[in-house]
Here is the input.
Amino acid sequence: MSPSTTAAIINDLGALLLFTMLLILAAGQVYRAIYAVAAQSLFIAIAGAVLALATHNADLWLIAAITLVVKAMVLPWVLHRVLQRLNVRREVEPVVPIAVTLVLAVAVVVMAFHLSGSLGAVQQAITGNALPVGIAITLLGVLVMATRKKALTQMVGLFASENGIFFVAIAATQGMPLIIEIGVILDVILAALVMAILVLRVRSTVAADVADLSRLRG
Amino acid sequence: MAFLVLLGPLVTGAIQKLKARLQSRTGASVLQPYRDLTKLLRKGTVEADTASGLFRMIPVLVLAATVAATALVPVVRAGSPTFPLGDALLLLGLLALARFLMAVGALDAGGAFGGMGASREMTIAPLVEPVLMMVVFSAALAAGTTELGTLAAHRGSSWLFAWDAADFLGFAAMIVLLPAETGRIPVDNPDTHLELTMLHEGMLLEHSGPGLACMVLASHTRQIVTLGLVSSLFFPVGLAVGAGATALLFGVTAFVVKVALLATYLALVESSYAKLRLFRVPQYLGVGFVCALTALALRIL
Here is the structure.
């Protein structure tokens, strides 16, 4: 595959990633956000496969496969199970209205694209517009974590954030060393499991929500 | 142009039929909208006592604005037209004008439902129209022109693989927008006359006879104009460049296939979603707004 074709495909996947991120932000119900983050991981796996095809880097194939299995299938399944076990209200409870979050999201995306223009040298090493898209998704993930009250939605935000970082990492032409990539993915799995168990435990013992923590005074 | 106006009710009929089949009903024939129209044309007109002379003109004006808009959509031929009629801006302007006139007519009649429908329609309109504009602008920026035929020709026969990132986001915005612009389920329900749920129907309540026929035909036409706009902006495949008979025939076939696909999408959305509460609609359209704005930002930055 020629570099320009690869760049075009990565650009398009970047747009789809942004779209799924917007869906996560706009999701009114928790399970929609979970499906959206699963779709996002799927696109990242496709991006990994495309880059593997372009750079003939065998490690990237492995990374794409692991991403597909772990992030696009196992993690959403875990989140879905937790959601069912929790038996909570299915609506996400935003701190600020979702419409406001969407406006903030536009500002973040535009800023990410504007600022990444000033990183000329770094931008050269990365395929297509992966850098601004990655930055935007990472920041939007943080936005999701900051503006949602439910622990489960905050987890979705964390995974989206992680996806953004991962996208930039695999788009940096040679990719990171395999061992680091696998380490990162293992971290994510572990974090997901720990958080899932914690959420279930906290819920079953004290029936508390993240929002209740703000009333905690030492 | 006449082709679009004549085809408009058929698209509505096809969507109704497909919806009925999806709900395991036989459904009315796809020609039912034509029968409704001819029936309405034969009937007399009843008017509210409070209505002014303007009220009688409204249906004709609305239909005229919408039909004029059909002339601007490149249906079978791409490339700059032989005589310049207007561009995408005029098209959007005409659609907005039709919407405005419809709301004015509903308010003029003085009925409670008309006013309510108009106020709801005007609540939705400022969310729908900017999105449509931004999608068109983001395509126009790439082509350097707002003339729709030239725009479609610039796209050439590009298919999904030649799409930019901005095209994907623009198309996503359009997908979100389509049900709102055509007055269909997540935003409006075309089948009901229940006062709680209706937007568009509320504005038509006071009209009757040939006037109502004009309004209904205008909304059929508006729907096919929107579908035609989407297909020429995003799928300009098969648009004839020359004037040969085979090329034109191919263009017509391609157009019918594209509109059929979009109509299927609308029917599927209608059968698989519930209508949103009015206050949730801005959030739904907000997704489209953000997508369109991002698409525009991607083009400019």
Q: What stands out?
A: The longest helix of chain A spans residues 58-86. The mean pLDDT of chain A is 83. Residues 3-208 of chain A form one domain. The radius of gyration of chain A is 18 Å.
